[in-house]
Amino acid sequence: MNYHKLRRVFVWELPVRVFHWINALAITTLCITGYMIGKPPAIMFGGEAWERYLFGWIRYIHFVAAYIFVANFVFRIYWGFVGNKYANWKNFIPTTRKYFQEMWEVLKIDIFQTKPGEHMAVGHNALAGFIYFLTFIAFGIQVITGFGLYAAMSESWFAGLFTWVVPLFGADSGVRNLHHILMWFFILFTIVHIYLVFYHDYLKGRGEISSMGGGWKFIEEEAFQAEKAKEAAESKKAA
Ligand code: HEM
Ligand code: HEM
User: Which segments of the chain have a pLDDT < 50?
Assistant: First the structure.
């Protein structure tokens, strides 16, 4: 039997984990209520429409989830500057040659499968980090288009900051369409994301899924030492 010596590494801090699950819950709620707003189900009621408040509630839930989603997102951006090295914004934005090299390496090994072996990353690998970055940009556009639409129906000062959005697009319809299309991006992202997380959990056996619960991952001792040596070499070069 093949034994691995594994080291327990604390990767995802509590704020990152709390962000993750609030974000997942908020997006799920926004997708469900948003879909219903875009394609209202024909529900037959015995009474008058005004006796029910079904769509009022659906829209209300959409807007409450929207505020939670925005606050949580802003918090994650802040944590990208004050959190640990795995939470840092540099994991998401390709600014160095090394980042591009790692992305290419992950593409070759995990996606095209033209290179044998395994890519080792303690936090997000470079490709995953970049995909999260694109998702964060989509979050931003969803907030702008969402509050752009909301500005016409809300008296809140925050929504008032987005009155320029609809005139920029010329009409409500363009903003709505973009807002709608992005919902499908999030649905697609979620399906692929959950598949990949489960796949990596099974394939690598390092506790990928539970890492977003407790924060810990299990890393091969040699890989851990290699990462430490790489970090030491980089900080020596920077000094
Ligand atoms: C069963 C559901 C889910 C599980 C088990 C799960 C698990 C995970 C894990 C293990 C990571 C870290 C992966 C890595 O190292 O790259 C992660 C990151 C992430 N997940 Fe999920 N996830 C789930 C659902 C979702 C949903 C629904 C969304 C939103 C649409 C989402 C958005 C994200 C984001 C944005 C990150 C990056 C987190 C950060 O660094 O702040 N996840 N997830
Ligand atoms: C992941 C995030 C979100 C998703 C998936 C989402 C999804 C949707 C969808 C699919 C629609 C229906 C569009 C149509 O086909 O007509 C919608 C409507 C709307 N959304 Fe969102 N949304 C999100 C975030 C937000 C945010 C942050 C706001 C900000 C307040 C917002 C405000 C609105 C408004 C005002 C409407 C129009 C409601 C109406 O006319 O009754 N959404 N959303």
Answer: none
- Ligand number nearest CA of 38 is 2
Instruction: Give the ligand whose atoms come closest to the C-alpha of residue 144.
Output: 2
Nearest CA to ligand 2 atom 8: 34
| pLDDT tens, position by position, 182-235 | 999 999 999 999 999 999 899 888 889 999 999 999 988 887 887 788 778 777
The SS3 assignment for 6 reads strand
- Residue closest by Cα to atom 28 of ligand 2: 146
User: Measured from the CA of 128, which atom of ligand 1 is nearest?
Assistant: 16
Q: Count the neighbouring beta carbons within 10 Å of the beta carbon of residue 197.
A: 15
pLDDT at position 29: 98
Sign, CA torsion 25/28/33/34: positive
Distances 49 to 29, 37, 54, 55, 61 between C-alpha atoms, Å: 24, 16, 9, 10, 19
The mean pLDDT value of the chain amounts to 92
In order of their start, the domains of the chain are: 6-238 (1.20.950.20)
- Write the residue with the smallest CA distance to atom 43 of ligand 1: 212
